[in-house]
Write a structure and sequence with these properties.
globular; 24% helix
């Protein structure tokens, strides 16, 4: 079973380089789904 959270791009706990690209493409207020798998994070647009 998948556990998804809906979060804003500005609130994502990501590496700064990845987060910077997402902020430029989507904007800080855009909501995405986040799935945690162990220590990895999957962002679903």
């Amino acid at each position: 079973m998948r556990y998804l959270q809906k979060r804003k791009v500005a609130e994502l706990p990501l590496d700064s380089a990845i987060k910077e690209v997402l902020l430029k493409v989507l904007g800080p207020e855009e909501e995405v789904y986040v799935e945690r798998i162990g220590d990895r994070i999957r962002v679903i647009l």
